[in-house]
Design brief:
- By secondary structure, the chain is an alpha/beta fold.
- Helices cover about 25% and strands about 20% of the residues.
- The chain has helices at about 20-30, 105-115, 125-130, 140-150, 160-165, 170-180, 245-250, 280-285, and strands spanning about 5-15, 35-40, 50-60, 75, 95-100, 120, 185, 235, 255-260, 265-270, 290-295.
- The longest helix is centred in the N-terminal third of the chain and has 14 residues, at about 20-30.
- The termini are far apart.
């Protein structure tokens, strides 16, 4: 039997809606009479942590596979920071499609991530902030995915979005449509040897580095890990407005708001651990803190 299944892999962070994107694509495909599935793969189930979601769509045969997508036809990247800490194009088929949310131009992204696949770039974050008021790019990215792949029709997304978002549906549909209009697309480039990227990984001690004869070591701690790499935005402060109330310090769920060195009474975020959740900015009574997109 000929393989007619199209596979999609979504790369995002907790809170950006990658899982919802996959579910909406599947619902739209089913509405068009196709077979479809959507499912996530979680690591740390926390806001800002890297998340994978997957789709399989088939217009001819029922889908029996339930495993993660290893060799996708389509890869969608919801967070531009993930481009530099994980190999998002791993396993991407030749003549597949890579869709990226980035403020960078198509030319710049192509110079870094161009390959034997179609490339689409859209600033989904800017569109989501403009039309939705939040940095949640799931419905926005759907427009870019549809434009780049034609895997479903745009009108097929309307009912699933209305069902999922209710009164907020129109804004999400508008964001989807704007991304469809603004996404830029480049055709595949000639096959070439792609330089393997070096990614930041946590280094575990080799057994030779442990104390002689040691068979049990002290438990690890979350404080050992650079969770600041999870964030897609970070807090910046205008201390001229600050009244030193300390609410940012009190409300930070991660304990990464710390006293500002040499400035008694002021606080700042430790970027080594800050995950960009924005709670400090929400709780600040004087609008001292502004969340700024990672560059």
């Amino acid at each position: 039997m000929k393989d007619t299944t199209i596979e999609i892999r979504w790369h995002g962070r907790g809170g950006q809606g990658a899982v919802t994107s996959a579910e909406l694509i599947a619902m739209a495909a089913i509405a068009e009479g196709e077979y479809a599935q959507a499912f996530p793969s979680f690591g740390p189930e926390r806001r800002g942590a890297p998340v994978l979601a997957f789709n399989r769509i088939d217009n001819a045969n029922p889908i029996r596979a339930r495993s993660s997508v290893i060799n996708p036809d389509i890869v969608a990247v919801l967070d531009p920071g993930l481009l530099y800490i994980t190999d998002v194009v791993s396993g991407l088929k030749q003549n597949g499609t890579l869709i990226v949310n980035s403020p960078k131009s198509l030319v710049d992204i192509k110079s870094e991530f161009g390959g034997p696949w179609k490339l689409a770039v859209v600033n989904a974050t800017a569109i989501a902030r403009e039309l939705l008021g939040v940095n949640i790019v799931n419905t926005t990215m759907l427009g870019a995915v549809v434009k780049a792949t034609g895997i479903i029709k745009m009108e097929s997304l309307v009912e699933p979005i209305e069902e999922r978002f209710g009164a907020r549906a129109k804004r999400n549909i508008d964001a989807c449509a704007k991304a469809y209009k603004e996404a830029e697309i480049a055709e595949p480039v000639a096959v070439r040897a792609r330089q393997k990227r070096e990614f930041q990984v946590e280094k575990w001690p080799a057994w030779q580095e442990l104390l002689p004869g040691c068979v049990v070591i002290e438990a690890g701690s979350a404080s050992q890990y650079r969770t600041g790499d999870w964030k897609s935005q970070h807090p910046e402060s205008d201390y001229s407005k600050c009244i030193k109330c300390g609410l940012c310090y009190i409300y930070c769920p991660e304990g990464c708001i710390v006293p500002k060195l040499g400035e008694e009474g002021f606080f700042e975020a430790d970027m080594y651990y800050c995950k960009g959740c924005g709670i400090c900015a929400q709780e600040c009574p004087k609008d001292v803190i502004t969340m700024v997109e990672e560059s």
